[in-house]
Amino acid sequence: MVTNVVIGQNLITGQTITNAPVKAPTPANKSETATSELRASNQAQSATNTFAVSSFQTPDFQTIPVNDPSLVPDLQKHHITYTGRANNPMSGILLAWIVPIAIMFFLWRFLSRRMTGLGQSVLGFGSSRAKLISEQPAKVVFNDVAGCDEAKHDLQEVVAFLKDPGRYNTLGATIPKGILLIGPPGTGKTLLARAVAGEAKVPFFFISGSDFVEMFVGVGAARVRDLFEKAKSKAPCIVFIDELDAVGRQRGVRIGAVNDEREQTLNQLLVGMDGFEANAGIIILAATNRPEVLDPALLRPGRFDRHVVVDVPDLEGRLAILKLHARGKQLAANIDLRKIAAQTPGLAGADLANVVNEAALAAATRNALEITQFDLENAVERVVAGPERRSRRLSDEEKTRVAYHETGHALVAYLSKNADPVHKISIIPRGRAALGYTMQLPTRDQYLMSRSALLDRIRVQLAGRAAEEVVFDEISTGAENDLQQATGLARQMVAMFGMSERVGLAYCARRDDSYLPGGPAQRDCSEETAREIDEEVKKILSNAYVEARTLLQQHRQSLEQIARELLEREVMDAATFKDLLHHMETAQAA
Fold this sequence. Notes:
6-stranded mixed beta sheet; 18 helices; 12% strand; elongated
């Protein structure tokens, strides 16, 4: 039977008992009967006027209330205890207003962070993305930068001004507001800028030129203004803009909305640099490897008026860089870093750091306790020519052809007076397309080359194809890269170096002043002159090829013997190559 009932506005709950009801004892007289009726009436009246929250245990049943006026009289009739419960009015307000507003607020915050990226809010879309790098934890100084002594000397004035500006103010001198670091990729321009800040012990702001350019017009200009405000609050300080050409390109070259955004950003950068007071303690450093595309207004006095060239290091510079990156590495006692520096002409500081790291990885792979000279030399070949590809299986015929091809390069180089000495010959495939290679290393850094040295270089490049023709009486596709390099060098001799009697001293090509490698030269001559240049290039290549083929025919025995030895060894160093030639020369003289 039902014992307790709670009547609410939205739900009716109650409890039941399953045992049989116990009948009340029959009263002995009328007085007891009257007393029982009075007690039941009082209990019913008390239950009717009570609207407290029930305290009984978990209900056994629940149902939806209906508009039944006879419900309460029925409960009273059956002597069932019941209570009423009124709903809290605040719960309706909470569900109808506060909860939806809270959900919309958190949804807006989530979408705003996703849209802006990098944790920026929508309201901070135009704020600068410059990173303030603290130099206290890991300070970079000039001793941590090697191979660019001239650049460090040019930047000493900036360091001295940031340390003691009063000395310059007394003499009326003004330090340049902007300093442009120019050089090929990987030469250490960013590291040099951090070293300036580390030496001067001032805050260092770092930002890339591409961080200013956005799809929306005006955002880049706002970020430039915000950057200068931050720099003024931290003065004296250094602001470094990497890849300045991304925002400082010459105006009016391109057409479109992107160009409008870039021009507005550039205009704001120019105005901001003019807004700095003299000797305000804010130095703008920028780096680029494409100075030819910069706007002339950036390079005028008062802005980026000082240019510091950070070029690829020479022999002593490469040696200093190798020693710098060898710190903290376990090197063998017989390591000769000068020899490694001599084997890496033209490599930048980042390339040399990669060489040392590749050597350390190779030593760790074979569970060695120290880095050997062999590891470093293999690392140089890996960086220059690519990793070995022993999985590329060549047929015996192809392997023999590659051996004669590389032997032809090495033998003509040995027989040419002005060619670089042979360092190594290999018929192990490397990189994407090289099936073999002949490595030549100069004895010193060369800044000028004579006409005879250039002709010897072309002759060596064509000697591989000539060796195939001499031995097999048929040529292959293996000389593609050789022909490309030889043709380019011959064209430079005729069109740029004035080394052709027919074309004369006319400079018939134009090349942008770029530090990026592989930039093509544009023709700057008439059609008739271009035809004469092509004829002269063909003449130089034909003569060099005939000379290389003649040398190989005269030394056919040496070609055959060295090629057979190379097939057995697969790799031949300079000492073995010279010993074989010396032995054959001694045998022929006897």
